[in-house]
Structures are given as structure tokens and as C-alpha cells.
Amino acid sequence: MELTGAEIAIKCLQEEGVEYVFGYPGGAVLFIYDALFNQDQVKHILVRHEQAAVHAADGYARSTDRVGVALVTSGPGLTNAVTGIATAYMDSTPLVIISGQVPTGAIGEDAFQEVDAVGITRPCVKHNFLVKDVKNIAQTIKKAFYLAKSGRPGPVLVDIPKDVSNQKAVFDYPASVAIRSYQPAGKGDSGQIGRAAQMLLEAKRPMIYSGGGVILSDAAGQLTELTRLLGFPCTNTLMGLGGLSASDRHFVGMLGMHGTYVANMAMQHCDVLLAVGARFDDRVIGNVEHFAQVPRKIIHIDIDPSSIAKRVKVDLPIVGDVKLVLSDLLEALRGSRVPDQPAISAWWQQLKEWQTGGGDMRYRNSTEIIKPQFVIEKLYEITGGDAFITTDVGQHQMWAAQYYPFDHPRRWITSGGLGTMGFGLPAAMGVQLAHPGATVACVTGEGSIQMNIQELSTCKQFRLPIKIIALNNGYLGMVRQWQEFFHGNRYSETYMDALPDFVKLTEAYGHVGMRIEKPSDVEPALKEAFARKRDLVFLDFRTDPAENVYPMVPGGKGLSEIILAEEL
Amino acid sequence: MRHIISLLMENEAGALSRVAGLFSARGYNIESLSVAPTEDPTLSRMTIVTSGSDAVIEQINKQLNKLVDVAALIDLSEGEHLERELMLVKVRAEGETCEKVKRVADGFGGRVIDKSDSTCTFELSDTCARLDSFLQAIDRSLILETVRTGASGIGRGGRILKL
Questions:
Q1: pLDDT at residue A335, as a whole number
Q2: Å between A299 CA and nearest CA of chain B
Q3: By CB neighbour count within 10 A (0-12 exposed, 13-18 middle, 19+ buried), where does A170 fall?
Q4: What domains are defined for chain A?
Q5: Nearest Cα to Cα of residue A204 among A297, A277, A289, A278
Q6: CB of A127 within 8 Å of any CB in chain B?
Q7: Cα(A422)–Cα(A416) distance, rounded to whole angstroms?
């Protein structure tokens, strides 16, 4: 039986087991929406802005190990989605984005709502397609899902012109897909893995540095086993939090610009560094030349060869899926001789000194004014450390990363690479839909939340009981902090006058709003909010506007040039 | 250092812009780029002449390989290879000038492919460096226009790039 292109597209989503499509209708996708209307297997979540559709699909994907799906119309629908697509690309989230396009005959004529979707998204997708023939829709969507999920994951765009979505073809969903020009890495080279094991066993000052690749590859178990087997210290990047349980005694905290003193010092002074699914980016190792001053052997495991030796010289590259490589590495280490215990003990002694001498992850609490760190600590306590936490971008994001320790992967959902303000609330929607009974909190600021606050309406429509933890200090705090440190306290355009009354605003959307102004009210307010299992609650915490995120490695500086909090 | 990278890619709409876009987005040098379909119409062969430090060239190779449309890639400069570029040069033909240029062109294996009362067009095929030498060997003021294709490259002997 022949189906229309639109029906085929929806059938493909059904075949892929897609639960939710996050989208927004428009002219070019009318036929696809019609096909959606005639079935109830794939549920559509109507967002209020296309950027939010992609972030929601992103949050869904990050908190599960499934592909997130978004559906947008041509022109502005697509351009609105671009920030979401770029966010997913930078953090390697598997997404399939279906966009409508003007009819094939109108392409190139500057038609109404026409934009070169494939051209605009090219630098921020893993791959993209323009489907010009209805007969190609099924295999293109099959390829899109395969590309999105395999290898280093990423967003894939499928652009479907309106006329193609209304033409007919026989539906035949391919059982498998092979792309001759695309061979994602699988197992790592056994010789290299053997040499890595040797290098690790000979290390005197070893360090394990793991990133988002561990989460994406579902390799937290292997990482944990390896760390414990060797007894080495381990740090996680912002994207890798939860890869090793924060309560594991080998965990030395997050590293990088706002990482712990001990993690950064250990990165700088180790003699063998095992990098796992991480990419040595500028927010992680700071100044490359400074990093390279201390000689150390680097073993780098990554599924993407282009991540290896991009910013730093690597002594032992291992290209492969992190989970498979770690499993083989464990195999190579088991039953072999043990690491150099006296050297490792002395190294841990040094780490302990850095741990106590660093003074990081401490702040001076107040009975007068709410400290943002205090809110996050209480959030951790009240949620039992077991919530899904999404964030926006800025100071609140760093405090959440620092003061909410994660014991499990896929609980920490943040825009690390692109640093997209407006990510948190829509991402939380995707997380909540994927985990209906779970506690989901969006930690945000008064700046970020306004970048996608319209989604409070989506949350109402789909009854998503997200808890919004707004650390409202009246400033674009992270920018203000840089202005304080590096621009002579000239707070250029970082004070946000005329903020809305968030309580009333939340109520206008049909939710519960609370304003918290005293430190003594923090805990009761959080308790009350989280007791409201069925309600979205917006907690507007008025926090200390002068608070800064410490420690801090200033931009362009080296890891050991870290600024610590004043003596407390 | 100058490198010649040769690759096979799917002959799909937009494949060329993925490569060109990669070079501009990541700030890599691109000296020339030539592309055409192969004997297998589903594949295009592209030759890219670029330059950079070893680390940059390594990244260029990896980033190109990462493109989904790129099926196979070889850095020809890493081994024995041949390169040829086609150049068309139109010179002013006044009195003896055409003959003078022709004598130089003969030394470069060039030939005349068009003549008019006032012009004379030469075709030369050689390495980029040899073509540069030809242009230096003739009187520049005579040149009306030059058209170059950019290098095409191929491995010597058994060095083959094929799927």
C-alpha cells in the first residue's frame, strides 16, 4: 500500500520506537502534522518556541540513552531550532530533527518561509539531508537515526520539502543500514590497550580524567571498576559528572575553570594522565602551553579520532568506544601485577594536602542574605541527592556542579560546550517526560530563565511538575564576576533592572510561585515545593548579588594559576 | 608544509560545500581544490592542496575523514606521488611575441590551442611549481589571462586510493 511522505515519516518514527516528538507546526509541515494527528503511538509535545523543542529533545536524550526527536517548520522554525541543534552538537547528543521545507519547485526562489536549512545547519550537525524524492524518506530517516546514535553521537537534520511529504510511495522500512563512507569506531587496538595498561602500572603520579564520552557510552560502571582496581585519583569534567560516583573516595571533584584545587593541581603535576572520553577543551585545561610545561605521559581514549591530539600532544592514542576500550583495559589489568603502591600512596598524600590546602568548595554562609551555594546544598539534602538536575548557564550552573554531587550518570543535564542560556527549562521538560515519576529540578538564574520562560505554558499543558530553582541575584552573575575580576568593576549592562515578579508570572501560567528572601526560609520552602509532587513550583531565591564562583582559573591561564576563595 | 590530500567522497549535492565549509570554519589554509566525478558516478575524487604544521595537517585529515560523505582519504605528500595542474594562458600576440612564448612553452611541454590576430592561447599541464616557473619565464606584460585548475594528484605505482 502506498503512503504519503508524511505518513512514511511518522511510520519511521514508530518503527524507531519514538515515544515523544517535540515540535511546533507550520505551513511546510502541515502534511506531517496531519499524519501525526491520525495516530497515537508517537506523542507530540507542543512547545512554545522551536529552540525549546530541540532542547527538550536533548534533555530527553541525555537523561536516557535514546535518540531525541524534534519537528519544526521551514524558515523561522528551522532558524529558531539552530541554537538547540548547535547545543546538541557541541555536547554530542543524539538527535533527529525533521524540518519542513518549501516545495521542491520553490527552492531557491526566496519563497515564503524559505531558508537553506541544510546550509545553515551544516557546521552544527553530524550530518544532514534534503530529501527530494518521497521514495528516499524511509531510508533517509533510518540513516539519520543510525548516524545520530552510532559513533560519536550528534544531531542529524532531515529536511523534507512540503510537496515530497504529500507524494506517495510504498513504505518499506529498511531493517538495517550501512553507509560505506561511515565506519564508526568500535573496539580499540589491543596492542595500544596493552601498552596503556603497562604505562598505568608504571605510573608514580597517575590521574584519571573522564568526560562526557563516559556518560554517552554508558561506561560509568567500567570507569568505576578501573578507578577502584588501580586506586588512582579520578576527576570528571562538567560533562562527565556522575561518570564516577561523587561519593567514591577516588573522586577528587570536577576539574577546570571552576574545578577543585586538588583536581587541577593533580592534572598539572601527574606523570601519567588517562583521558577517557574527554577533549582537553579550553575550559578544562586552560592555557595549552602552560599545561604542557610539566612533562607527563598522556593516554587518550576517544571514539572520535579528531578529538585526539587536537589541543594537546598525546603519547598513546586509543580510538574506540569508551565502554569497549575500558572493558578491554580492565581485562588487560586483571591478574597482572599491581601499581607502584608506595609511589601511589605518596601521591595520594600530596593530593590530601592539596585537598585541605585548597580551601575550595567552601563559602561563608550568612544569616542575613541567602548564599546561592547554600540553596544548592539544601537542594541536595532535600532531594536526597537523587534528582535529575538541569541547568542554564552562568554562576548558578557552576554552583550546581560544585555543590550537588552526582552519584549516577545521566542525572546532570547541562549545556557544557555551547553554554546555551535558555537550555534548562525545556531540557527539564524532556527529562520529566522520559522519567515521569522522577524528581526534576532546573537550577537557573533570573537571566537564563527568561530566555525560554514561555515554556511554563508547555509545562502546564503537559502537567510537568518541574521544580525551578532560580538563584536570582539581579545580575548576569558570571559576566558580572568577570567584570569585577578583569574589567575594573565596570558592570556594563549586567544589572537587570525591571525584572518581572516571577511569583505572579508563574501564577499567570497556572503554576505555583514562591519568593524566598531569608536564609532561614530556604529549607522550608524547598521542602514545601518538593512535597508538591504534581505541581510545577518556581522558587525565586533572592541571593547575594556579590557572591562569586570559586575557585577560578582565569581565561587563558594555566591550571595551577587558580584563584581561590579568600581565606574563610 | 605543503600537503596534497586526495579523497573519495559520495557524489551527493552539498558534499563539496561540506569540505569547503570545514576549511573556512576551522581556519585551515586552502591553496586549491579540484573535484570531479570518477569512473564510478556515485563517487567524486577531490584533490586539496593545503599547508600547515604537522599538527594542523593531522587535524585536517581527521576532520575530513569525520565527514560522513568522505569515503576514503590519502595524504599523497606522505609518499611517492604525481601531481598535475592544467593551466591555460592567453598572451598578446604582437609581431614575434607569440613565437617567443611558444619557444618557452615548448620547453614545458605546452601547446597552442587557440590563435587570433591579437591573441595566442597556450595549454600546459605540469606540477604547480613548474607552471609557476613558466609564468616567470615569459614576459608578464604579455599575459592577458591565466586560468588554473588547481592540482590533481595520484599515488605512484601501487599506491592506489579506491573503495
A1: 78
A2: 17
A3: exposed
A4: 2-170 (3.40.50.970), 190-358 (3.40.50.1220), 372-542 (3.40.50.970)
A5: A297
A6: yes
A7: 13
**Residue B146 contacts residue B110 (beta carbons within 8 Å):** no
For residue B17, the chain A residue with the least C-alpha distance is A119
With an 8 Å Cβ cutoff, are B62 and A305 in contact?
yes
- Residue A189 pLDDT greater than 90, yes or no: yes
Q: Is B163 part of the contact surface with chain A (CB cutoff 8 Å)?
A: yes
User: What confidence tens digit (pLDDT) does each residue in A208-264 have?
Assistant: 999 999 999 999 999 999 999 999 999 999 999 999 999 999 999 999 999 999 999
Residues of A belonging to the active site = 50, 112-113, 162, 478
Length of chain B: 163
**Which residues, in sequence order, are bridge partners of residue B146?**
B89
B72-99 pLDDT tens trace:
999 999 999 999 999 999 999 988 888 9
- Strand bridging mode A234-236 / A206-210: parallel
| Cα torsion A296, B52, B1, B66: sign | positive
A465 preceded by a cis bond (ω within 30 of 0): no
Could you write out the DSSP letters of every residue in A163-186?
HHHHSEEE----S----TT-----
pLDDT digits (tens, 9 = 90+) for A387-420: 999 999 999 999 999 999 999 999 999 999 999 9
Domains of chain B: 2-78 (3.30.70.260), 82-153 (3.30.70.1150)
The dihedrals phi and psi of A254, each to the nearest 5 degrees, come to -75, 150
Region of residue A170 (left: phi > 0; alpha: psi -120 to 50; beta: else): beta
Q: How many angstroms separate the CA atoms of A531 and A388, rounded?
A: 16
- A175 Cβ contact list (under 8 Å, min separation 6): none
Tens-digit pLDDT profile for residues B125-163: 999 999 999 999 999 999 999 999 999 999 999 999 999
Instruction: Give the helix/strand (H/E) hosting B45.
Output: strand B43-51
B65 with A306: Cβ contact below 8 A: yes
Q: pTM (2 decimals)?
A: 0.96
pLDDT > 90: percent of chain B? 93
Beta carbons of A123 and B69 less than 8 Å apart: no
Task: Tell me what ipTM this predicted complex has.
Answer: 0.93
Instruction: From chain B, pick out residues whose CB is under 8 angstroms from the CB of A127.
Output: 68-69
